[in-house]
Specification:
With about 190 residues, the protein is mainly α. The protein contains eight helices and no strands. Keywords: Membrane, Transmembrane, Transmembrane helix.
Length: about 190
């Protein structure tokens, strides 16, 4: 999404927006509702901080280039969030975490404990979902939340590792090799 020109960016973001709303409309609109101030802030910050031709002859007017850049950044953010929403809705948490766990296998060469990292990610996502499912607890009793009584119990968490087939292993190896080449700067 980051490297797309404006016209393909708008079309792909709109397509992803439609796909995300078809997947789980209520959850997607709740996400957009929470992001509305961030999206507006992007447009305004770019509008007043990017040099260019002012919209009107006032001293504090936003620039046309800035508003366009802010709108494009907002579209990039909405497109990436919509694609993430489609991915989460299509695969489910267990398959995503199993995939991340499998992709993190080479990190063991550097001394990273992928079991702990994957478990922390699973716990964080489950805890965040439990908090988002009951937001009235945080709004009505913020002092209890600060004391640690958030009222959002998290059930037992299990990390399942899914076996990979031969072509999936080859695809993971190619993906990791491409990431390694990009990180080392080979081919630029």
């Amino acid at each position: 999404m980051h490297r797309l020109q404006p016209t393909p960016l708008v079309f792909s973001a709109l397509l992803l927006l439609v796909l995300a709303s078809l997947r789980d409309r209520r959850r997607w609109w709740r996400t957009l509702k929470r992001l509305r101030f961030l999206l507006l802030a992007l447009v305004f910050v770019y509008g007043w901080s990017t040099p260019g031709l002012r919209l009107v002859a006032w001293l504090w007017a936003p620039t046309e280039e800035g508003l366009r850049s802010g709108a494009l950044q907002a579209m990039r953010l909405v497109g990436m969030l919509a694609s993430l929403h489609c991915l989460l809705a299509g695969l489910g948490h267990e398959r995503i975490f199993a995939g991340l766990y499998t992709l993190a296998a080479p990190l063991a060469l550097f001394g990273a404990w992928r079991e702990r990292c994957a478990l922390r990610l699973v716990l964080t996502m489950d805890y965040a979902e439990a908090l988002l499912a009951a937001p009235q607890v945080l709004r009505s009793n913020w002092r209890a939340w600060l004391d640690g009584d958030d009222g959002a119990p998290v059930g037992p968490v299990r990390l399942t590792v899914l076996p990979l087939s031969g072509w999936q292993r080859g695809l993971c190896a190619a993906l990791l090799a491409a990431i390694g080449l990009i990180l080392t700067g080979v081919g630029w």
